[in-house]
Every structure is written in C-alpha cells, then in structure tokens.
Amino acid sequence: MEVFFYGLFMDDTLLLESGINPSNPRSACLDNYALKIGARASLIPCKHEKSYGIVMTVDSGAVRDLYSEASVADYIPEEVNIITNRNDVVIATCYNLPSKSLTGTNESYALSLYELAKRKGFPNDYLEKIKSMSKNEL
Asked: Tens digits of per-residue pLDDT, 71-106?
C-alpha cells in the first residue's frame, strides 16, 4: 500500500525500528493541506497550502500495527492524491489527527521534524513554516 508520511515517520530508519520495511520512497506534496504541530504533527485541510512528505510502499498490516500504538492510535487513515517529485499523481493513505485532537505544542518534535525535512530537501518556505512552530532557535 502507498502511504504518505509527513512527520517523523518519514525517517525510514524509524520505520525499520518499528518493524516496517518501506520501499520505493519518493518525495511528494499534498495540495490544500497545512502542517500543524501540536503534541504531534497532523495535516489539516487548508486551501492554497501545500504540505511535503515522503510516499512509500509499505505492508498494510505493518502500518495498521504502527498506528495502533498508543501515541498515534487517534490518527485516522484518509485517502489523498499526492504529487511526487516526478509529477506523478499517486493515491495514497495519509494518517491524520481529527482537528479536535490537535492540541498542545511540542517544540522538540518541531525541531526534529525541521532537521529531518531539511535533510529530505524540502523547499525553504516549508522549512520556515516548520521552524516557526518551534520557539527554539534552529
């Protein structure tokens, strides 16, 4: 199954440690969604925004197991159309928190996500949005 990861799960090393063996990773973006970081990251519908991430092919059972863990159990799968860095349109599953569950702040998460997104080569304006979600100097 194709899954669009936009938070720390974009790190395939983290996925491997969770028992997921991803394949075919591609940079991608999702139009009309904005990244929000509360206690964790989520994407929320927002016209004229764009969120970046990595789409990977993963085993559906392994992804269900991953999102059954307590820290991410509130995430809901949603089918989305993403655009890869090669301009291919891919139908993928994206796990998001319901808006009412997106509370708090997590500066450490924002910092880690900023560093990961920077390594993945995401656009500077997107990196600045992530950076603004942390009070830390990055």
From this structure: 899 999 999 999 999 999 999 999 999 888 888 888
Q: Which of 82, 80, 63 has the alpha carbon at shortest distance from 9?
A: 63
Q: What is the spatial distance between Cα 133 and Cα 21, in angstroms, rounded to a whole number?
A: 30
Q: Does 115 have pLDDT greater than 60?
A: yes
DSSP string, 76-128: EEEEEEEEETTS-EEEEEEEE--GGG--S--HHHHHHHHHHHHHTT--HHHHH
* Residue 104 main-chain phi, psi, to 5 deg: 75, -175
CATH homologous superfamily for the domain 2-126: Gamma-glutamyl cyclotransferase-like (3.10.490.10)
> What dihedral angle (degrees, nearest 10) is formed by the CA atoms of 19, 25, 28, 30?
-30
Averaged pLDDT for residues 129-134: 88
Read off the pTM: 0.93
Contact indicator for 65, 19 with CB cutoff of 8 Å: yes
Distance CA 120, CA 136 (A): 21
